[in-house]
Amino acid sequence: MLQYAAGSARAFEVLYLKHKGPLYRYFVRQIHDQQLAEDLYQDTWSRVIKAASTYETSAKFTTWLYRIAHNLIIDHVRAVKPVDSFTEVFEPEQDHEAHLASDNENLEAQLLDNQKADLLKGCVANLPQVQKEAFLLNVEMGFTAAIIADIAGATLEATKSRIRYAYKGLKECVDLKWQGASHD
């Protein structure tokens, strides 16, 4: 980022290529509206460009970048209450029909996995927003609690609690829904 601030367009290209996929997925997983996710994604990069001349290395670039993204999501949530505009996560990355096996055992196992994935999606969608964000940053992005705390502007202990409560809530939700589904 310092090289970009000094005028190197190639430095920006390297930053963009390194972070474009994960940052875009971050927005898609947080926001239900694909167009809005794209707009916020573009707005993040626009803010990076505008802030280049004043960028300071007080935090890792990745942390700084996701802090901008986090703040844009928070601004959107405040402007568009209620919070239930956030999306489900863990969208299927592949065409499941193309992978269905012909024998019944594999088909049943695949259907069972899909059912579990749907349960998990619903449970993640129902998490409080701060827990959902901490969980997604931890699981999908691989960020540590310390980095997530920097991004969210929360204490390390609060962030650890959010992650812990997210996992606990997901386990309880999935267990409860799974028991309910298996008795239907």
A few lines on this structure:
With 184 residues, this protein is mainly alpha-helical. The chain contains 8 helices and no strands.
Annotation keywords:
mainly alpha, transcription regulation, DNA binding, Arc Repressor Mutant, subunit A, Rna Polymerase Sigma Factor, Chain: A, WH-like_DNA-bd_sf, 184 residues, DNA-binding
Question: Residue ranges: pLDDT <50 for 5 or more in a row?
Answer: 82-103
- Number of helical stretches of at least 4 residues: 8
CATH superfamily of the largest domain: Winged helix-like DNA-binding domain superfamily/Winged helix DNA-binding domain
What is the CATH third-level topology name of the largest domain? Arc Repressor Mutant, subunit A
Strand content: under 5%
Distance between the termini: 55 Å
Radius of gyration: 19 Å
Mean pLDDT: 79
The dominant shape is: elongated
Secondary-structure-derived class: mainly alpha
In the CATH hierarchy, what is the class of the largest domain? Answer: Mainly Alpha
**How would a crystallographer describe the biggest sheet?**
none
Q: Please, how many domains?
A: 2
Helix content: over 70%
CATH architecture of the largest domain: Orthogonal Bundle
Count of distinct strands: 0
- The topology string of helices and strands comes to HHHHHHHH
